[in-house]
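Form 7-S
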Amino acid sequence: MRSTSPRLADPTSRGLRPVAGYRRIARWLAVCALSAGCHRDPPPVPPGEPIAAPAEVTLGTMDVECEALVSALGLYRKCPNLDDDDRADIDAWSERAQQDFAAGKKANPEPNAQHAIAAACRKAVTSVTAANERCHAGPKPPPP
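Output:
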């Protein structure tokens, strides 16, 4: 007569070989543990040479720098590779810049603010000049 006490299911009845399967799992876990435990980080990279700060740019007055932006926009507008929409955008930027500069002159900002405005205009001149060079290099690529 069969025993009615609860027993674990016989793993061999499902075609499993309990010992070989457990050994394989145990071996795999041991390899993982050893490879993780024996891993060493490479030594840290030594620091490189210090990077020099960019040279201080001698800025002109707010009026000079901002007028340079308007003239840079005018030169950019003459690029032969621009289409009509681009030229309309440049005209709008130029008009807005002139209005903002006129309002800035009227407000007569303090010297630190004038220096900050002059620096912003110089950065914008650099950006517009680079865009002008790219435009003269050839037509812009078609959209994807």
